[in-house]
Design a protein that fits this description.
The chain is an alpha/beta fold. Helices cover 40% and strands 14% of the residues.
């Protein structure tokens, strides 16, 4: 089952992205608050066997983040295309994997954001 988790959006961006996703047939959308970011990622994706275990003291960066699960390649392309076609900036994005489903969500957001910063700096250095 497809699922989209969104984190770090203000009210305006929440409405904008929620409307975009619904208009393009993406319906299973969950918005995560900062308070929930210290839960196990598998729990947030409603995976069987995961409980709302929390790790105190972990804080995700204050960025816009989108995590997807259950998507095939065609649906990922449709998702990315929906943002591009409508000229809406896409949040930093990651997919659920067998290894990251056991991570604390905030740790995952931190890791993906660090990778995003590195990749974008490498791309600007090549210009």
């Amino acid at each position: 089952m497809e699922k989209i988790i969104l984190y770090g959006l203000n009210d305006e961006r929440t409405k904008q992205i929620h409307e975009l996703l619904n208009n393009h047939g993406f319906e299973n959308i969950k918005f995560i608050s900062n308070e929930m970011s210290n839960c196990i990622t598998g729990f947030l994706h409603d995976l069987d066997g995961y409980t709302p275990d929390r790790k105190d003291g972990v804080k995700a960066p204050e960025i816009e983040f989108m995590m997807i699960s259950g998507f095939d390649g065609e649906r990922i392309n449709q998702l990315v295309s929906a943002f591009k076609t409508n000229q809406i900036e896409r949040p930093v994005t990651s997919a659920l994997t067998p290894s990251n489903k056991d991570w604390i969500f905030a740790d995952l957001v931190n890791e993906v954001y660090e990778e995003h910063l590195y990749m974008t700096s490498q791309m600007s250095n090549q210009k």
